[in-house]
Each structure stands twice: as C-alpha cells, then as structure tokens.
Write a structure and sequence with these properties.
Largest sheet: none
Order of helices and strands: HHHHH
Helix content: over 70%
Radius of gyration: 24 Å
Distance between the termini: 91 Å
C-alpha cells in the first residue's frame, strides 16, 4: 500500500508527536521564541530578586555588624540571607503560579488554551527557586565582608 502512495508517511502516535514538536520548536521559530522568552524571564527575575535582596541586606548592614560583634558567626548570617532569598523565591513562585492560573482560566475558552503539565510546573518552579538562591550570592558576599568593629565607629 505504501508503494502505491509514495508521498504519504505512516507514523505511530509517538513518531507523529515527535515530528510535530520538532517542527514547532525548530522550524517555525515559535519554539525558540518561547525558550528565549523563558530564559530572559528567569534572568530578569534573578536580577530583580538579587537587587531586592541586596537592598534589604545593605539596609541592615549595621544590624549584621552588631550581630557579628556580639558573637554570631558569619555562616549563621550568610544562612539568614540565603533563607531570605529562599523566601523571596517561594513567594515569587506562588505569585507567578497564581497569575498563570488566572491567565490559563481566561484562555481556556480560546482555540489555543494554555496548558501547564506537572513536569513543566515543577521544572519552572525549581529553575525559579535556583535563580533565587543564585541571587543570594551578592548579598552573602556583602555579609561576609562586614567588619564587626564598624558598629563602634561613628
């Protein structure tokens, strides 16, 4: 039968799905646009998170110096900064998830509804949380450089 219709491909469901994914991801430009948008979103989110955390840390330099002067360890203070970053990451992920749920609800009636699979959600949440922890590096570096003697200077 295939020889009598040479311009036709016979594919399994899996083969057809793979071919469709490759087409949309590589040949139309739509897939790469989505990937670039996601990467840029993570980069912007990381920078915003980093600036927010750095501002919080910088505003409390004297408090950190005081804690160092009374005997708290630098590792404990760095852990506090990382915990703040993790909290910002969790709140950001929850906020983004809520906004996505609202968008998905309204777009579910359109011909091209938004769909978020559990694997994509977990991957996105892990990436966002990882970016939040990466954003903590600048603030942790600042806390590790604080001089406890600066509390006693005018």
């Amino acid at each position: 039968i295939l020889r009598s219709v040479p311009a036709v491909d016979v594919l399994t469901t899996r083969e057809f799905a793979g071919r469709t994914i490759r087409f949309w991801m590589l040949e139309t430009g739509a897939g790469i646009t989505v990937v670039i948008t996601a990467v840029l979103g993570l980069m912007v989110g990381t920078m915003i998170n980093s600036q927010t955390l750095f501002s919080i840390t910088n505003d409390h330099r004297k408090d950190y110096a005081t804690l160092l002067a009374v005997g708290f360890g630098r590792l404990w203070l760095a852990s506090a900064v990382v915990l703040q970053s993790a909290l910002l990451g969790v709140l950001s992920t929850l906020g983004g998830s809520a906004l996505f749920a609202i968008a998905a609800h309204y777009l579910s009636q359109t011909p091209v509804p938004l769909e978020l699979t559990p694997n994509v959600f977990v991957g996105t949440a892990v990436a966002a949380f990882g970016c939040s922890l990466a954003a903590a590096l600048l603030s942790v570096r600042g806390v590790l450089r604080i001089d406890p003697v600066s509390v006693f200077q005018a």
